[in-house]
Amino acid sequence: MAVHAGEGSPAPGAGSGPGPGPAPGPGARPRRRDRHGRGLRGRLVPPGVPLYRSRSQQFDDLVLEAVARLEPRWENELSDVEFAVQEVPDADAIGDDGVPLARIVRGAPDAGDPGNPATGPRIVLFRRPLLARAEDEDELSELVFDVVVEQFAEILGVDPEVVDPGHGDLE
User: What is the spatial distance between Cα 128 and Cα 19, in angstroms, rounded to a whole number?
Assistant: First the structure.
């Protein structure tokens, strides 16, 4: 059956026989139509609107904002720390304490092996457990910041109040 481009007119190159029509020329765009003759839907939200970003990208932005809040005071110490986001913790990370919100992956010291270079510590935040504990965007932002502060303080070996003097204050 021929694929139609619009109101009863056959698409260019659509013959009555089976198989695809001729390949599009160098300047032609390939047709993207479904079997009902309708094109694929375009983007529903323009790129400049905040809804354009996916939920995971928005969560990544919250983590970057939390790190940016610490940078003015802890820039040198933060330079070696990597931050990562994982959807859920691995099954072996779930213990008697419940589902963790984050974990620290200790770095590898320089062993003089070029195949295994030295790496700094990595703080891995678990997106789904954090989302489950927050009521709204503001609470999620504060929760992410608190978790980043706690994990960073553990790497430094200090209390979270040293990293962020307002840590633990009720709002």
Answer: 46
Instruction: List pLDDT tens digits, range 99-150.
Output: 899 999 987 776 666 666 668 899 999 999 999 999 999 999 999 999 999 9
- Residue 167 in domain: no
Asked whether residue 77 is domain-assigned, the answer is: yes
Contacts of 126 (CB under 8 A, 6+ apart): 85, 86, 87, 88, 89, 99, 100, 101, 102, 103
Phi/psi of residue 102, nearest 5 degrees: -160, 170
> Is residue 37 one of the residues assigned to a domain?
no
Query: Tell me, what CATH number does 88's domain have?
Result: 3.30.2010.20
The parent domain of residue 86 ranges over 50-108+118-157
127 close to 84: Cβ distance less than 8 angstroms: no
Q: How many domains does the chain contain in total?
A: 1
**Segment holding 60, helix H or strand E:** helix 55-78
Residue 103: in which H helix or E strand, if any? Answer: strand 102-105
Task: For residue 154, give every residue at least 6 positions away whose Cβ sits within 8 Å of its Cβ, in sequence order, or none.
Answer: 104
